[in-house]
Each structure stands twice: as structure tokens, then as C-alpha cells.
Design brief:
This protein is α+β, with helices and mostly antiparallel strands. 39% of the residues lie in helices and 21% in strands.
Amino acid sequence: MSSAPGQGANGPERTIMAAPGGEWTAVNDENHPWARFRDHAADQRKTRVRQMGWTAPSGINVPSCGLSEPATKEPPTMSISMIGLDTAKTVFQIHGVNEAGKAEIRRKLQRNELIPFFEKQEACTVVMEACGAAHHWARMLMGLGHSVKLIAPEAVKPFVKKGKKNDAADAAAICEAASRPDMKFVPAKSVEQQGILALHAARSRLVKQQTMLANAVRGLATEFGLTVPKGIRKLDELMVLVNADETIPKQAH
């Protein structure tokens, strides 16, 4: 069987089919068996083209490895595995990296935005410097399901890029320091532990202020020629000497 273009009596023929005997026959009727065979063969060719690939705008047929449609789905993005958090009183800087260590997010947050941000964030490792209110934020973030690590400030300083001392650089340095396998972390303190530490800090300050005041009184008494041995308990003896010395003016009492 073969085909060739031709001209019929009633106008142009879509296809001129040759019968097995060799006589050319014009086919105008769409219901003719040869016409139905021709259309079926054309549909099969189109199906094979779709299965083999897709046609580019320039007319080049590009194979798609047996798929009916080219793969256009992008690979999924990596999730954030670690966040470096630089804490402050009002503005907080975050620096998030994925498992490959590539920065995924850099952002500043106000104090009232910090907790809502981590509530929406998937569970990850949050790293902070062990200073200020870091222990308070560590407890808050652990309550949200995150893993929190604290690093001593002196261990983060070597990772801060030269000439870039700002909140964003500090947050990035915290992530960089935490990724080191030999880095040592500071355990987060509980509320009870911080309460005891607050009591010791207040007592230490009061003792220091008491010592400063005692030394000031000794210095003033020395200007009038009155001295006593060292010791906080010796101040009572000094007060007796000051009250007994009539040469000291009343303004100095």
C-alpha cells in the first residue's frame, strides 16, 4: 500500500490511496475504510511521539526516558537544622543553617516576636552565648521542643569575622562555633539554680559595698590622726575614738 498527493473532481483530495492492484483511488469520504485506516495510523504516530519525548520550540524532539511528560518538579529544600541566636534586651538576631551548613535564614526579631517565631519553627538546635538572660531563653525554647546549647562567649570570639562586629556576624559566629566537633557547651541552669546564684550575687555585692564603706570611714578618720587595726569589727573602736576626740569638728561626726 502507498499514498501520494492528488487532485479530485470535487476539489483537493486529502489523500490518494493506491489499491493493492496498483490503481490509484481518490478518497473523499471520511467514512471510507482507507480514510479510517489513515486517521488511525496518524493517531498511533502521535502517541509514539508523546511517549518518546517532547518537542522543543525549535522543532527538536527531546527524549524523556519513556515518560509521557518531562520531570519539572524541583528538589525539596533542606530544613533548618541549627539556629544561632544573638540575644539582647529588645532586638534579637537569628542565623539559621541547614544540615550542609548553608545559611537559610538571617533575620532580626523584636522581643515580642521571638517566641511566636520559634513556635512556628520545626524542632532544631538553638545555640546561644552563655551570658545575660541566655538561661531564661534556653528554658523557654526547650519548652517549645527545641534542643538548646550554650557556649561560653570567649569560645565564640575567634569565629567572628574581622571588621564585622555586629549582631548578624555574632549570630553567624555562634553557628560556626557550635558546628565544631570539639566545642564544649555550658549546661542550661534551672530556675532553682538561678535563684541560688542570684542570692550569692546579691550577698557578694553587699559585702563588697560594706568593705568599700569601711575603708572610706578609715580614710576619713586617718586625716584626723585616728587609726585602728584592720577588720570590720574594729570600726566600733574607731567610732569610740572619734566621739571622744573633741578636736574633731561636729561636721565630721
